[in-house]
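Title: Prediction job returns without error message
Component: structure pipeline
Severity: low
Priority: P3
Assignee: unassigned

Description:
Job completed but the reporter wants confirmation the result is attached to the right record. Sequence as submitted:
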Amino acid sequence: MRRESIFRSVTAALLVTAAAISGYHRHRAEQAGEDEISLQGEGLTTAVALRSSGLVLMLSVVAYLVNPRWMRWSSLDLPAPLRWSGAGLGAVSLALTLWIFRTIGKNITSTVETREEHELVTGGPYRWVRHPLYTVGTSFFVSLGIVAANWFMELASLSVLVMLLIRLPKEDEKLIERFGDEYRAYIERTRRLLPRIKRD
């Protein structure tokens, strides 16, 4: 029982740190931009489905933290070393998240729309991947599922990723509308979620 308390504490620490990093940088972006970002560009169905799946994911993590018995029905019998490796993945994901937020700065939005003063960011992690925050966000929540040893958290993480993949073409389309050939050239150099593997 004590071991589970330790893993709950680790999960809580990772989640609180992630919320602090995301909240701080998103607030700064909102303060820097005078324009309000609309969800209309996503389409109502996509917007609702994505945020609903995200809410289910967050509620499953919170339920585990408040009372693990609420999530016992979807628990996995994972060895402790594997669960600690999940904690390591979570820590690495947090470091990458901080790098991503610092790189994108005031250009971060929660939807496919761009800000009035939006700049195309192609440095830092964006040099290799067009949407690194989606990749790292997924790896972070997968890491929480490993630490918590819970298959439903993993499934919920993947469902959010699926919804993001459905939304991504619209996001790229909006960025092409905004940046034109510059973004088309960027697409040629990069992939959406994973770096290109160069072959000799």
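Comment from assignee: result matches the submitted record. The chain has six helices and no strands.
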